[in-house]
Amino acid sequence: MKIDSGTRAHAENLLRFIDASPSPWHAVETVKRGLEENSFCELKESNAWSLEPGSRHYVVRDGSSIIAFVTGDQAPTKTGYKIIGAHTDSPGLRIKPNPVTRSGKMNRIGVEVYGGPILATFTDRDLSLAGRVGIMDGSGGFRTQLVHIDKPLLRLPNLAIHMNRKVNEKGLLLHIQNELPLILSNSNGEDNDGKDFLNLLARQLDTETDSITAWDLAIFDTQRGVLYGPDDEFLANSQLDNLASCHAALTALLSEEALKGETTRVCAFFDHEEIGSESLKGADGSFLPDVLERISLAQNQTREAYKRALATSFLISADMAHAYQPNFTSAYEPDHRVRVNHGPVIKINANQRYTSESISDSRFIQLCLDAGVPWQKYSHRSNLPCGSTIGPITSAKLGIRSVDVGCPMWAMHSIRESAGVLDHEYMTRAMTRFFSHET
Ligand code: ZN
């Protein structure tokens, strides 16, 4: 399979983007860096906004959701908004508030399951932690600081086959209370109330142990992303679901041809998709409606004008899709097998687990045709429950027509996911077309 140098470089950029983003808070920081390198300025929700045509801005809510936009030459009432939505979070393990438990002279870190990870894939990996820590500042207030321990620190060792003889017949089943705590260190036998762990965090943050008050800490895999296959046509990393969609959308927004135009272009990347999106900063919260309305009001538009803008807007809800894995034929709908490196997938579900319908499908297909990329259609097996994403929530909340699409990938919610190098390029080209041409 021929992979040209530009396509390969784009895939390598994606791998670096993910490697720099071990938690949703870091993902937002990585996105911010890309935006600021392209002259985007931050707007605070607590300040008054005034916007001109062609303004480049971004808004962050609670550190792990971000909306970036370029205002169009025309008011949104005339053109509607063009929006690409994706999510910054990935399923996995989060560290509990009183994390250290001692057992058999070992210190372990207690974890809570976040969303729906494939737990068995977390065994025998070189794990570490990243996220946000609350720190008292000594003058009656507090601040938050990001932490990223970029070395193997924690481990979930498998049970040897000699103690789990049926593992290859029954699979690895992990009791989420008793069998998920991660090995941290040998214990000196004293009950130190988790001080060693706090000391470790404090050293990393260059602060006092006693000043740490709280945290949001995710477990991540320190192994870097790679290209693989005879022609490096595949890629593997953690968090492809859904940082690959964020990276494609951001690349599209920052492309030269998409940075100017009549329509206001928006990228909305939300935390908390993996746990249902209902939160301060999730897709089922007020973040996107608030920001879209304020973009309109800040250009001296009325509330009615804002509502009129929504009526002509369009959302591409981008989240990854299930590629056909030929070892598991019975898991797939035989006539809707989507293949890695065969193009973006339009996800269709009559029960509206996905928003795609004949009008929005057609619009996305036209984008693919115009961008010169192939596309595929996916329908889940009828006898399996179908997943969902931010598309239905966002579309319902705003009254915006939407299509659900994504790149085909293997092993969704494994700590090591895998996808196609060509598909990432194809998706980026379709999204760039969406942002750069008036339709
Ligand atoms: Zn997803």
Could you say what the CATH architecture of the largest domain is? Answer: 3-Layer(aba) Sandwich
Give the names of the bound compounds.
Answer: zinc ion
Strand content: 25-35%
For the largest beta-sheet, the strand count, sense and barrel status come to:
9 strands, mixed
Shape: globular
Gap between N and C termini, in Å? Answer: 34 Å
Query: Which structural class matches the secondary elements?
Result: alpha/beta
| Count of alpha/pi helices | 11
Percent range of helical residues? 25-40%
Low-confidence stretches: none
Provide the spatial order of strands within the biggest beta sheet.
1-2-3-13-4-14-18-16-17
Q: What is the radius of gyration?
A: 22 Å
The CATH superfamily of the largest domain bears the name Zn peptidases
Q: What is the CATH first-level class name of the largest domain?
A: Alpha Beta
pLDDT averaged residue by residue: 95
Summed up, the domain count is: 2
Number of strands: 20
Per the CATH scheme, the topology name of the largest domain is Aminopeptidase
